[in-house]
Amino acid sequence: MTNQKGRAPLRASKALLYAGVAAIGALTAMPAQAQTAAELQAENQKLRSELEELRRRLGEQQTAPAPVAIASGPETPIATTVAAVAIVSPDPVGGDDIVVSARNRQELAQDVPLPVTVLGGETLERDDIKSIWDLPARVPNLQLNNPGENARKVSPSIRGLGRGSANDSMEQSVAVIVDGVTLYYSGQAWADYVDLDRIEVLNGPQGTLLGKNSSLGAINIVTRAPSFTPQQSFEIFAGDLSTLSGKFSAAGPLIGDTLAYRVNFVADRTNGIYTNTYQSMGHAKETWRETNRLAGRAQLLWKPSDALSVRVIADKLRSDERVNTGNTLISNGPATYADGTPRPLTPPIAYTPTGSYATYGYLGRFAQKSAWFHNSDGTVYQPPLNTTDIANSEARPQVTNQWGVQSTVDWQVAGHTLTSITAYRYQDFDIKNGGQFGQFYISNSGQQLWNRQFSQELRITSPGGKVFDYQAGIYYLNARVYSDDPSYYGQDAGAWYATAGQFNTLIANAAGRMLLQKSLDGVYNSRVTDARVQSLAAYAQADWRVLPKTTLTFGVRQTHEKKTNRVSHELDRPGENLSVLGATLGATTAQIAAAQAVRDGQIDPAFAWRDGDPIEADLTAYNVGLSYDLTDDVLLYSSFGKGVKSGFIFFATDETATESHIKPEQTYDIELGAKATLFDRLLQLNVNAYRTRIHNYQASWQRDDPRRPGSFISGWGNVERIGAKGVELQALFRPTRNWSIDFAGAYNLARYETQWLAQTPEIAATQFFDLKGEQVSGVPKLTLSYGFNYSLPLGSYLARVTFNNAYRSGYYLADNHAPFTYQDAYNVTNLGVGIGAEDRSWELSALVRNLFDAEYYTSASTWSNSAAQSVTWGMPRTLVFSFRSRL
């Protein structure tokens, strides 16, 4: 893989053209379904009648937190929730209506005035969507951090807002909820989710209906429940990148119609696209950005009566993955700064190397100290550029272990449903990042972290379909995140971190060289934080049908939170006593002092636990909405909501761990939307306009480290105001029962509305520029997702073709807006084909991801005096075959 950045616009347009050709070709190649206009009209009239009956029955039913199954043909073996604002490849056949539970009650999707995008179980299986990183390609206004970095950096955002870098004290703006349990530490979303009923993405402030408050939205993951009907399924996958994965699921009764179970297991193994050449020997290759996970899940459902049900879930995941490094060094940068000033030269010190080498920038650092960093033939060591072959002697796999247990009790009393959700979750992981230094052992940083949470939620839900419907609940959370951020150093660290003067002093003789080696060798220090939170909240929401076609919705949430945090610096392994070693070696006083200065310049002073000032706060969130049934098939709605995200205690990365309190975020959100079912129910068309503004937006910053030239310190602060506005449009067209064509698009302006400084790139002295009015990095203004699914009966078999294309307009990948970090517009196209039994009991399929092998970056950083231009590549074209069986 080589750098094709200059060709990106051409590649993007070609991909779009090819995608269109593929779609048209498939449309024309497949025979049309023989269905006359009269037959369609008769069928639509029948469905319209069924819809009215379904609406009537839902209004009479008691509420329940889980969807009910609707008989809708072979494509819907279980109930599936679809979009309220968005319709993205729902599973049922053309014209059928689907029950949703986005508001904790059974409702028709098109009757719910909420901006929600939902992918049903059939779509998730067909497109092999199993992690939250697979969602942005199908949900246009959802963004995530660079996929595959590490569990500490799971941070989703909606409409360009809410994404953060690694921060163990801050909660997320976009919640991840699994079977009703909010993951307080979003790193617990580092998982494969299988046996899924649906995934819902809710836009806008949440919290007046469920769980932990989230100020910008939520990703709601719902797995299939135990079943009293025996079910078994398994899938196997094999393909490019040595993919070999499998899934197994089984469900059925244990005791009559009283006790049922469901179990599933997944093993997921795929190589990464980066090869660590330093560690790879012969045909065996050590790859990075890989997948290597084992996970299992077991459930029980106890129904002693129609009024009471208890669902218990236990899950466990173990991963051992090389994911936390792997990027391509593209260029050392030019010989001059952006203003034309020459970059400082760094000629070799006390050494005359052979061959060619750079004497400035990142590569120049190796040349300057080539007396130490040279190869066996005398040439200067230079890390490989512009290749996915990396040389990393120190990185180690990320080991992640997480598990949880929960119970959900639903009890129907006097027409109401009482719900209790009790959950405990635990996670620990260990990562070691290393660096691209080939055979040299310089330093390794990473993270050793564990977190746990206990939550309890109690909720009451009134019967649906009344003039006045309501829900109310209380929520309690107790969580802790303990984070140990270690750094340890190898025998080449002293030479790397020494100043030119220190290096020159120590390289002069054997005694000095030994002191240079031992100055940091074996030293291990760490920065530890211990953040805790207790949260207690009460919430309520009501729907009041003030007129036959007009409904007023209003909700409120009051949260009381206590937060604490403490920090310590530990010198776990102090290294060798340099004064004693220097005297033994006969080193000069100046050499001993220079070696000690190298160590002192890199190692922060140790101190015992220091408590930060605690936070105790009361936070209020609310929403008000109005909806109007223009006709039986057209719904208009509006809402205004306020969301809150609590503040946190932050300790800076400087030597004294300076404490600061980051203020709470306050989100104000307006939604205006319409949902319509048109042309005798052949087309569903939904549109939503929004305006979101956040006060005291929590954001990270980076500055030069005054103690360590070429290094940086990072911190957090509050942007006075940031906002997003735009339009989301989604549609589903089903011309026949075998065809579905879907489209989703968003135009989004996510911008800083007040001053926020970013460091100006590619200049000599540190300067800053104001991001006010600029688009938030990592957020394209235009995102599109469109495709089709076509099923064709062939005798006793059923064939299908699935096509999907995701388009992203150009955007900056870094806050500093360096030209190199601009990602041009691109398309990623997926194509799947399959053939199987007509009753869907088995299917053999092939899925090609990134069909046209589009080249794009998921992250990029530009050059400086201490760093080269680097990128992380998006996944290239891959082909995976699968076999699925259902019994």
N-C termini distance: 43 Å
Average of pLDDT = 86
What is the β-strand count? Answer: 44
Structural class: mainly beta
What coarse outline follows from CA principal-axis ratios? globular
What does this structure look like?
This protein is mostly beta strands and 887 residues long. It is built from 9 helices and 44 strands. The strands form 9 sheets. It has a 22-stranded antiparallel barrel. A 5-stranded mixed β-sheet has the order 3-8-9-6-7. Strand 10 and strand 11 (243-255) form a beta hairpin. Helix 7 (510-518) packs parallel to helix 9. The longest helix has 24 residues, at 37-60. Residues 1-40 and 56-96 have low confidence and may be disordered.
Provide a short characterization of the protein structure.
The protein is mainly beta. 12% of the residues lie in helices and 47% in strands.
List the helices and strands and how they pair.
Blueprint: H1 8-29, H2 37-60, E1 99-100, E2 107-108, E3 116-120, H3 121-126, E4 142-143, E5 157-158, E6 174-178, E7 181-182, E8 196-203, E9 217-223, E10 231-239, E11 243-255, E12 259-270, E13 274-276, E14 287-288, E15 291-305, E16 308-321, E17 328-331, H4 361-368, E18 389-390, E19 396-413, E20 416-432, E21 443-461, E22 468-489, H5 493-497, H6 500-506, H7 510-518, E23 524-547, E24 550-573, H8 578-585, H9 589-602, E25 607-611, E26 615-631, E27 634-645, E28 648-651, E29 659-662, E30 665-678, E31 683-704, E32 712-733, E33 739-752, E34 757-759, E35 768-770, E36 782-794, E37 797-808, E38 811-812, E39 822-823, E40 826-837, E41 842-849, E42 857-861, E43 869-873, E44 878-886
Parallel strand pairs: 6-9, 13-18
Antiparallel strand pairs: 1-2, 3-8, 4-5, 6-7, 8-9, 10-11, 10-44, 11-12, 12-15, 13-14, 15-16, 16-19, 17-43, 19-20, 20-21, 21-22, 22-23, 23-24, 24-25, 24-26, 26-27, 27-30, 28-29, 30-31, 31-32, 32-33, 33-36, 34-35, 36-37, 37-40, 38-39, 40-41, 41-44, 42-43
Helix pairs in contact: 6-9, 7-8, 7-9, 8-9
